[in-house]
Amino acid sequence: MGENVTADEVPGKQVSGNLEQVRHAIARACADFGRDPAEVDLVCVSKTFEAEAILPALRAGQRVFGENRVQEAAGKWPALREQFPDVELHLIGPLQSNKAEQAVDLFDVIQTVDRLKIAAAIAEQCQKKNKVVPCFIQVNTGAESQKAGVSVEDLPALVNACRHDLGLKIEGLMCIPPFDRPVAPHFALLHRLAHDLGLQKLSMGMSADFEQAIQLGATHVRVGSAIFGSR
Length: 231
Ligand SMILES: *Cc1c(COP(=O)(O)O)cnc(C)c1O
Prior knowledge:
By secondary structure, this protein is α/β, with parallel strands linked by helices. The protein has helices spanning 10-32, 51-59, 70-83, 100-106, 116-128, 155-165, 184-197, 210-215, 225-228; strands at 41-45, 64-67, 88-91, 109-113, 135-138, 170-174, 201-203, 220-223.
């Protein structure tokens, strides 16, 4: 970083520089692990950051973003989308049924379907609005009592109900491994589960471990702090 930049230039340059580094790391991981880079999407996680911090990433060509709160996304993305209509916004945080309508309006992909009730609410809104919102099922691979996600045991029935009873477009699986455990077994488990269910997409890996996730088959890595800095 140069020394003569003004204060308001610094954050933007940092964000675009960080983004560049993350893209390089993804490309390198793809090369190292024999993955086709076209099959790995970077979901740039902009939660807690204002539009002003997000703009440098958009200007650098990033188009896929993740937010974890419906309300927060509603506050900043409609205006950003006017400038960048080809943005693809993913919901990566828990959803409540009473926010399903807003979520279907705002998001292009919902990664956090984890129970029948929320799946039904999304399906109903999609039907009403004649809109297709591809979804991922979030799996609680670590069987953590406080964590969102369907259990491994209940996953097949949920996928089945989404596909056949609700007509929801289920594209893949998503997980957030326990933060204090090695991640590889969780990524490998998610990969196997998706394979068994005939699902193509795997959302796994964050700033600290996206390379490992790519090695184990991730098609979507969700990276926040490595791009925007700590929250
Ligand atoms: C915040 C968040 C991320 C990004 O985490 P970083 O460690 O900042 O990269 C990824 N996935 C989910 C579900 C998150 O809530």
